[in-house]
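**User:** Hello, beginner here. Are you able to go through the protein record under this note? It all follows right here:
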Amino acid sequence: MENYFLELKTHLLKKIENTNINEFPYYNLFIEDIFLDDFYLLLKEKMLFYKKTKLLEYRNWDSPDFINKMFKLENVSDNIILTIKKLFNDNDIKKAFLKKFYINYDYYNEINFNRDIQFVFTKKDKVQQIHTDIPEQFISLIFYLPEIDLNEDEQLNNGTITYDKDLKPYKMVKYKANTLFCFAPHFYSYHGFSTTIDNRNILLFFYSNETMLQKFYDNIDNKNGYLNPDNFKNRIEEKNIKYPLIEYTKNCNFLDKIQQEKTNCKINDKNGRIKH
């Protein structure tokens, strides 16, 4: 079993390291064949098993217009999910991801994703509100797990939609089997999704610092701080000064860039959402 884990880890590291960053409309990675084929099929099988349970919870973060469903995996301890947790909490894997987005990555042992790992299930004809993701998240990771083969239009119409600074949508990311889309949240990491199929299934989690994340949820529960768009932007600023992004230091003055993007940031609703 240990040899198989090392095989999975080696494959994953090569995929991360050999996939080039997409710089438009903000730094992101789209990695194909993220898992070995046999492991992906086991993960998909596990996803379908949990989808059929009666333990699904309602998830109301995606849009005020619809509620999709999720199965939380934080306390799940079957072999496949444990392997996912071990893989992505491995220090070499965390460093490989951080190196794609951040100037420094020596804090890799301070981040993990134990809290918010979940399968998310969305039905047809839904639209997610544009948002940036909460600033306490260092990297957002979305794994695509379609149930059937899809044509290219279906893949593009159900993948994550990225938006430029003027909120023009770009369907660049395919909802394709055994792929990963990931990015580092900041002032203009605008994204969302819409669905044209009845079974949009993803595995979702975020690298975060537990202390920082708990502070975020405490403020949400107390109905203060992060609900306010201005305070949300302040948190993005604070985090990006402490943990500089490669994107914010390329061919520009770092602090000037942060102030410029904070001024231009289009967040105007609670929790980093954007109302049209």
Observations:
- Helices lie at 2-18, 37-51, 79-88, 91-101, 152-158, 210-221, 229-242, 254-264.
